[in-house]
Amino acid sequence: MIVRFGAFAVDSGRRQLTRDGVEIHLTPKAFDLLALLTDEAPRVVRKTELHERLWPGTFVSDGALVALVKELRRALDDRDPGTPIIRTAHGVGYACAAPVDREPIRSMLVSRWLVVGARRFVLVAGENVIGRDPAATILLDVSGVSRRHAQIVVGERDAILEDLGSKNGTRIGDNSVKERVTLRDGDQIHMGPALVIFHASTSGSSTDTVPGSVPVESRPTQRD
After folding, report:
1. Residue 40 CB neighbour total at 10 angstroms
2. Is 62 helix (H, G, I), strand (E, B) or coil?
3. How many CA atoms does the CB half-sphere of 120 hold within 13 Å?
4. Distance (Å, whole) CA 37 – CA 3
5. Distance of CA 60 to the CA centre of its chain
6. What is the pTM assigned to this prediction?
7. CB 217 within 8 Å of CB 131
8. Least confidently predicted of 30-34, 54-58, 72-76, 82-86
9. Backbone dihedral angles phi then psi of residue 11, each to the nearest 5 degrees
10. Which residues are within 8 A (CB) of 88 and not within 5 positions of it... i.e. 6 or more apart?
11. 32 CB-side CA count, 13 A
């Protein structure tokens, strides 16, 4: 889905925000918040709902949400209190106040997802940061996993795994990931003590995106 408002466009498939065709950088969680607010516009989304959808099953202070809203306002140059893009409903939540136009787009021909224990996480186009950082695309809340442990960059034709300088390393099977590696269906990725299995299929994944923390047992290891 592409959502347009003013000079801006939010492409949920590519996870990309542009202004007059020029890309504007957002952290993964800030993009998630923008996509959520534009998708729900003009409805005011309550803070409790925002917490549940952005950080399911994880306690995060209101300060984290406020920081994301500030990041969005900077990125959108949202400085006019008379005609805000992101409107604050004091004591309630936030809303996208700009008029929006929505247009559907074709989904990727190849679906890619991760399996961690009994849970599945659909990978989105672009960067998918994995780690213990609440701002990560996939929150892997496991001792021994770095805050920003690794990322998988999904393109139209491939998915590339890259270690982000993690303390306990990333491996595919017995091979340490020192450089960018193109993933193949069924690859077993070890991120510290956590086992993550990569899948790709032209028929698509049978499950929905499941954002949030991953309840995986782990052995004691060093932490960042």
Report:
1. 16
2. helix
3. 12
4. 11
5. 16
6. 0.51
7. no
8. 54-58
9. -100, 100
10. 69, 94
11. 24
**Amino acid occupying residue 222:** Q
Residue tagged 């992101």 (tokens): 86
- The beta-strand segments (E) located in the chain are 2-5, 8-11, 16-19, 22-24, 45-46, 86-89, 93-96, 101-103, 111-116, 119-122, 126-131, 138-139, 150-154, 159-163, 170-172, 175-176, 181-182, 188-191, 194-201
- Quick: pLDDT tens for 37-79: 999 999 999 999 999 999 998 899 999 999 999 999 999 999 9
CB 178 within 8 Å of CB 106:
no
Alpha-carbon gap, residue 138 to 178, rounded angstroms: 21
Nearest-CA neighbor of 222 among 167, 180, 170? 167
Label residue 172 by pLDDT band (50, 70, 90): very high
Q: Rounded to 5 degrees, what are φ and ψ at 33?
A: -65, -45
Q: Which two tokens stand for residue 65?
A: 């949400």
Six token digits for residue 34: 């923008």
Q: Measured on CA atoms in the order 12, 4, 45, 16, is the torsion positive or negative?
A: positive
What is the 8-class DSSP label of residue 176? E
Phi, psi angles (nearest 5°) of residue 141 = -85, 75
β-bridge partners, 200: 112
| Cβ atoms 140, 133 nearer than 8 A | no
